[in-house]
Design brief:
Order of helices and strands: HEEHEEEHEEEEEEHEHEHEEHH
CATH class of the largest domain: Alpha Beta
Strand order of the largest sheet: 4-3-5-6-7-8-9-10
Largest sheet: 8 strands, mixed
Structural class: alpha+beta
CATH superfamily of the largest domain: Fructose-1,6-Bisphosphatase, subunit A, domain 1
Number of helices: 8
CATH architecture of the largest domain: 2-Layer Sandwich
Number of domains: 2
Shape: globular
Bound molecules: D-MYO-inositol-1-phosphate, calcium ion
Helix content: 25-40%
């Protein structure tokens, strides 16, 4: 389905309005949170700010695009599953940070059209940075065009990753990957907000990002912003990215093949305690 650029631009403005309204809610609650609950898995939190911000976003979308379908973290699937327009909403990406008053979190609003991410807005209300993009329209931060970094060597890169809430229940918990990539690069950050991770790769503050256990609302917006900023998004092995897989490899493009190769050859975690094997790994 081909969407007229003017229509895409008007959806972008709509998403921006919703992100600003939600961001204001997050700022209002930030210093006086009263309700912090676990949603099920240990550490998977929800606060009254998540719910209030999501309600504001839904309100804006219901008013202007009432026929569109919505997948929102706190409310689930809303509307007609067969509608080609599906909004993926994370009203507060970085809830653990937010609940601890660690100021790295964002509102993330993405739009898929026939299953393909085509538009994204990520708003960080604490730094007042608005990242936006739509297919073919480029990516910006606070209206200025953004681009991925030019770092070509994995050894000179700064990466970011995250650890999903099921990390206590599975050995596929990204710990071994984290150790290996920390060893191979200038560093691996763990921000606690997948959308901000993608936005920061998009504007060149970071060179690459990988993570498992993600949901569509974590990454739909960021994927569009990164691609429009010149980045590459795939599965770990370099095959086509699948939103439902929960896994993403997102980079400036230059280090993509090397990072993909590293992720497919991660040594077992006990290697770091073995002096001989350790010294051969770089
Ligand atoms: C989480 C953050 C975090 C990532 C988790 C996500 P939430 O989202 O994006 O960086 O590691 O996998 O679930 O719960 O703060 O919206
Ligand atoms: Ca999230
Ligand atoms: Ca969230």
């Amino acid at each position: 389905m081909i969407v007229d650029p003017n229509q895409l631009q008007s959806f972008l403005d709509l998403a921006t309005e919703a992100a600003y309204v939600a961001g204001a809610v997050l700022q209002d609650y930030a210093d006086n949170l009263k309700q912090i609950q676990e949603k099920g898995r240990p550490g998977d939190l929800v606060t009254e700010a998540d719910k209030a911000a999501e309600a504001k976003i839904l309100d804006v979308l219901h008013r202007f695009v009432p026929d569109h379908a919505i997948l929102a973290e706190e409310s689930g699937q809303i509307g007609d599953r067969h509608n080609p327009f599906l909004w993926a909403i994370d009203p507060l990406d970085g809830t653990t940070n937010y609940a601890h008053r660690y100021p790295i979190s964002a509102v993330s609003i993405g739009l898929m059209i026939e299953g393909i991410p085509q538009l994204g807005v990520i708003y960080d209300p604490f730094r007042q940075e608005l990242f936006r993009a739509a297919s073919g329209l480029g990516a910006t931060c606070n209206q200025h065009p953004i681009q991925v970094s030019a770092t070509r060597e994995l050894e000179k890169s700064l990466l970011v990753t995250g650890f999903a809430y099921d990390r206590h229940q599975t050995v596929d918990n990204n710990y071994a990957e984290f150790c290996y990539l920390t060893h191979l690069t200038q560093g691996v950050r763990r921000s606690g907000s997948a959308s901000m991770d993608l936005a920061y790769v998009a504007c060149g503050r970071l060179d690459g990002y990988w993570e498992r256990g993600l949901s569509p609302w974590d990454v739909t917006a960021g994927v569009v912003i990164l691609q429009e900023a010149g980045g590459t998004v795939t599965a770990y092995d370099g095959s086509a990215f699948d939103l439902r897989s929960g896994r993403i490899l997102a980079t400036n493009g230059q280090i993509h093949a090397r990072l993909s190769q590293a992720l497919q050859n991660v040594p077992p975690i006990n290697v770091w305690a073995d002096g001989d094997r350790f010294s051969k790994l770089r």
